[in-house]
Structure formats: C-alpha cells, structure tokens
Amino acid sequence: MASNVNPTVRRRRLGQELRRLRELKGMTAEEVAERLLVSQSKISRLENGRRSISQRDVRDLCGVYEVEDHRIVDSLMQMAKDSRQQGWWHSFGDIPYSVYIGLETDAASLRVYDPQVVPGLLQTRQYAEALIAGALPETAHADIEKRVQVRMRRQERISAAENPLRLWTVLDEAALRRAVGNKGLMREQLEHLVEQSRLPHVTVQVIPFDMGAHPGLNGQYAILEFPDAADSSVVYIEGVTSDLYLEKANDVQKYSVMYEHLRAQALNVEQSRQFIAKIAKDYAN
After folding, report:
1. Locate the HTH cro/C1-type domain: which residues (predicted)?
2. How much is the pTM?
C-alpha cells in the first residue's frame, strides 16, 4: 500500500461524501436501503466509514442519487478502491481496534485523558507487556506479543522526524500509582514518561488525588483531529467488546470543553514532570 493511502480515512471521507449526496437528494437511509434491497444498517455503516465500500456499492448509490458528473463518480470509485487496500496494521492479523489505529495513523493531533494507565503511545515495551497480560489474563503469549508490537509501531508517530503526532495527555495520579509489573519496571516507565514530555510536540499533565472531583471521572477518552479540513474530529471511547466513535459536532464540542477543564485543573507541565519524577523515585525504594 502506498504510504499516503490510509484505507480507514478513505472509507471515512467516502462515507461522508455519500451521506452528503443522499442528503442533497433529500432521501433517508431507509429509502435508499429500500431502493437497493439492502438493510438500512448497511447504508449507515457505509456512511460512517465502519464498513468497506465496494466500487459496486458506489456505482449503485450514485445511480440512486442520479449523479451525472462522471468525474465525481470516477473520484468516488477510486476512493472505494483505495479504501479496500490494507494499512500497515493488517500485517499483524486481526486487531480489535484497527479502526482507531487507522484514524490515529492519519491524525495531526491527539488529546488523551486516562485515569488508570499510561497511554499506549507513551508506554515502554516492558510496561505494555505487563499491562496487556494483566488486563487480558486469558490471552496467549503470542497474541500479547502481537499487541505489543502494534503498540510499539504506533509510537513511530511520536518519534517521526517529519510531521510527528501532536500529543497532549492528561493523566490521573492513579495511572502513576498503579504498579504495573515490578517497581523497577514502573520506575523505568515513569522516567520514560518524563523524557517523552520534554519533546516539543508532547505535553503531559497530571491531576493529583487532592484535586478531588473533576470532569474526567467518567472514564478514558481521546479526541483525534486531522490535517484535512474535510475530516471532522473524532472522540474515541474504548470498550471491552466494542468501541465508540463520536463524530457529531455537538458531541466533539462537549468532550473538547471537558478536556479544557481537565487541562485547567491539572498541574502545569513543569509541576507535572516534578510530580512524576517524585513518584518514580518512590518506586526505587
């Protein structure tokens, strides 16, 4: 696959365009489904980019929407072709959160709040291994290793020489206090976190316990933003058996405002580094 072709993002853009064409035609998803003799859920999945779109699907939909401009049809057909190619993550087999990886790979910036653990993009290999093994106790060692390899590959967005991912992380103190693995491992992880926070495109803040109640108590989430204005921001909420992706402007705005409150209530960048470094020293005892 060409490095500039991200199938997840292509599906998303294509789905947005198909939704726009449907709305211009004044049709509901149910009406389109009836015309094509398919389920309404299929039309919804095509439009939200969660399902691969075949060129035949595009041809049929353009027919229903009476798209007469062949240049538009050809462009959409090419997007459908690109969307069926494989991203780098497919070489690792079945990855449960492959949609998220596709979005993260193309994102320009990522804002993360995590109340329990250090975010994957800032984890050491040893921490990732211990964390995955503990969180998924029935997972085979080979599958744990595969997940770790994917996590390490994702981190290349942080270390990239050109256009690295702009990462802003807010952590609850619990993520630093939760001893994943042994003390030496945790000390190494927290020292790594401090070092990563010194990168110009990485910001780490901590909300200490004594801050009390705050807007992040409902759980972990991430906000992805993209370089192309045509790609709307996405709120990602990880689940045990399925993940949630919120793309409506109102939803993204609510989570963005909540994130601003988290950043305001957290220790500033330098205070956070000192706080993390102090806890790292505690693990040395």
Report:
1. 18-73
2. 0.79
